[in-house]
Amino acid sequence: MQLRFVKLPINHDLHSEASMRYERGIDHGMTATALDAAAAMIAELGDGQVASGMVIGRDEDVQPTTVTIDLARINHVLGTELSLDTVSDIFKRLDFPTVVANETFTVTVPSRRWDIHIPADLIEEIARLYGYDNLPATLPTGQPTIGKLNETQQVIRDSRKLMESAGLTQAISYSLTTETKSKAFALHASDVTKLDFPMSSERTTLRLSLVSGLLDDLAYNNARKEHNVALYEEGRVFYSQPEQVRPKEIEHIAGAITGSMVPKSWGVAEQPVDFFQIKGIVAGYLKSLALQDAVSYVATAEHPEMHPGRTADIYVGDQLVGFVGEVHPTTAKAYKIRETYVFELDLTALIALPKARQQYQPISKFPSITRDVAMLIDDDVTNATVVALINKKGGAHLRHVQLFDVYNGSHVPAGKKSLAYTLTYQDQNATLVDDDVTTAFEKVLTALTDELGAEIR
């Protein structure tokens, strides 16, 4: 009956005086005493006659609760130095029968105090009667611990800010997918991890990549006439471990862009996303991590879901950390999406890599000098290779190298391309003279010719 009176008002939000009384608890041990008192009042005030005996509909054997607690525990929790007599007197005032032995109290809790079951309840009663104002205020001892994010948490938080500042919107995809999609776009080969009892055929296998989930999100948006979509996701992928039951969880970050990131406007032409735009987002993100080793992009055709001529693996030093490129047209058709560019990075590996110490570089008060160089070079020589060589041979005053032109049309031999760069020289402490810059610039031209086979134009 009591349970019914408690649940019904809560479920239906219908409260009465009786329901509130039951919610606060009923002393079942007082039933017979209360009945005798009610019968006495009927006889005395209502001129009634009390029949002998008592009709019991349901007999509840109410046993008193016994709680044991020692004096040391009480003083430890409250920070006090209470004596046995003080605590015994408090229990006496509460009308709790108590047996004391070896500084341990065995307290019999009356049925009217149905809210007391554990030692902490007794400590609360002692504090209440002793007086909260009498409890000592003690500062914690020991060296305080300053709460902060660990390195992984900080990188993940910063990654979200960087991706959103680049124009991408965060997506959260299911970790479970189909076996086919779980293997697609995997950065490293691995067996898949399947559920023994999946809820549906679409959620049977733990993912090895984040890209497939992002492509599902793009397809969802494209089906609703949203064709300019840029998404990213930070989450875990799951690589199987043959020696262990559980898979290895690795933090990844991935992005997918389709359509245009710069919508058509009266003063701006529409700019469909291309390889270099998404590569620029990745390059800016990796630069923010301040990696010590150089980042390189190597063309690859090893990813069957990616376009073989517009995909590159990403290396930091000699370690593979991700890929970037265009989704293969066949794959895009299977996902029912348009031309799409994606990237995926192993965030766990990137966090573990050594970082370069970033130092403040003051802005020079002295003017800079620029030199331009144009060259014919083999098609397979990358911009990163050229820039690295220029920085290596450019001298102490070389501040910046900027590619400003790429051409491989008419008047350029087959297998060649034309690249043009601007080199900026500047000294922090003095004004440079032409002779200093000319000497350093000629060393760059010589290195380009000798080491890369470039033809200076």
UniProtKB/TrEMBL annotation:
Where the record annotates domain FDX-ACB, the positions are 364-457
- tRNA-binding: present as a keyword of the record? yes
Q: Which cofactor does it need?
A: Mg(2+)
GO molecular function of the protein, one example? Answer: catalytic activity, acting on a protein
Lineage top rank: taxon: Bacteria
Chief location bin: cytoplasm
Q: Where is the B5 domain?
A: 62-137
**Mind naming one GO cellular-component term on file for this protein?**
phenylalanine-tRNA ligase complex
> What Enzyme Commission number(s) does the record list for this chain?
6.1.1.20
Q: Where is the signal peptide?
A: none
GO BP, one annotated term? phenylalanyl-tRNA aminoacylation
SMART domains with a match to the protein in the record: B5, FDX-ACB
Which positions are tagged coiled coil?
none
| Subunit-structure text | Tetramer of two alpha and two beta subunits.
Q: State the protein's name.
A: Phenylalanine--tRNA ligase beta subunit
Species the sequence originates in:
Lactiplantibacillus plantarum subsp. plantarum
